[in-house]
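Today's session is about reading a structure prediction critically. Students often jump straight to the picture, but the first step is always the sequence itself: look for stretches that repeat, for charged clusters, for runs of hydrophobic residues. Only then move on to the predicted structure, which in these notes is written as discrete structure tokens rather than atom positions. Here is the chain we will use throughout the hour.
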Amino acid sequence: MFPIPALSALRTRVLVVFAAAFAALAVGAPAPAFASHAQTVFFEAPKDLLSPAHHATFLKLERLGVKALRLELHWHEVAPAANSSRRPKFDATNPASYRWGGYDVVLEEAARLKWQVLLTVTAPAPKWATAGHRDLITRPDDKQFEQFMTAVGRRYGSEVSLYAIWNEPNIPGWLLPQFNSNGTPASPRIYRGLWQAGYAGLKAAGITAPKVLFGETAPFGVDRVFSRSEDNHRELAPLEFLREALCLNGAYHKASTCSTLPIYGYAHHPYTYPAVQGPFYRPPETDEVTIGSLNRLSNALEKASHAHAIPAHIPMYLTEFGVESKPNTLGVSQQQQAEYDAISEKIAWGNPDVVAFSQYLLTDENPHNGLNGYRTGLLTSRGGAKTLYYSYPLPLVVSRTSSGYSLWGLVRPATAATRVKVRVQTPGSRSFRTLAIVSTDSHGYWTLHSSTRGVNWRVSWRNPSGVAYNGPPIGAN
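Below is the predicted structure for this chain, in token form.
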């Protein structure tokens, strides 16, 4: 997430058991009438997973229904003599040359659980691998990165489902320079070189057809700057970054000197910031892409494929996302966080180009390095459960229609078709009554149309082992 979080900073009440068994409830509703499909949902919890308490974290994530992880592998964190301006003598393609530490533990446990893993290999880089050897993000050396990616592929090739190259390369906290001295974009061509080097490194590791995502772009920015003082302080707009990195002009015509990149998918972080603008917000700057304006990225990728800059029908991976909650001044209430998060997931699920969604953070960050710390987690920074902790296993969206209400939901921990109890609180009532029992599809998704007027809705589910889940009250949007 932007700007770069500290490397070290990057939920726990028992869920309420509902008393009545499904067999004793009213007749269930018919199976949902929509095409059965799914999207992978990656979960990112670096602080929790890379800590000594990782075992408890995995148990917590299992209960929440997590089945896929995104993990950022920071080059600087594992490389030898990373803070030195002089490169030490070592075989950079040999995994034994690096200190993998907690990454080994997380990937081994994910493999045991048969969870998908997206490994994003990213900055900070070793100082000796950057231009000028003065910092950790300025023009990382392509050849050095290729060798590192060979070591990564040899170490984790059997445990990683997808790779991605660099996190948010369109912002100055992760890659410099963002702009040339004349104000035009600089970071896209640097990134293109890193991506090609990373891809080549994975092939050198023996991975015949590496599945490597391109982009990992942040949602906001400008197309150019107009003063030298802005060069390293402004983000580059994601669609301008995409065009420049793929050698496309403003009309999406590709330069003849650039080849087609064999990207497996395009990764993007469609945050809405500030969160109070809500998930349907569309920025007036047309090169910015939030969750409410995903069609902009879909259209850009289609044009890029027509220009033969990328293969046809490249899917979109929304690999980092969250909704900020208070006490951040631009965050929303815990109730709104839960509702906005579910709406955002539904938006992604409804887009045919999107194959993956994500949740960034299990635990909120504490303030660090002069930053407030991100509050997109399911737990507070002190470990207390937020409303999102209870809604995450059973996300629910209630939308008003001309004839009543349309409900969409997911039983995230389910591993097959199941049934979920939907309850409603009608106007003037303090309690909830059963509205319907709905059958999900094989992926756990369900829909329901209801003419019953309600104030709040909630869902309950019991897994085959008897563990019960109750979602929080959710209002209509």
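Discussion point for the tutorial: The chain has one domain: 37-393.
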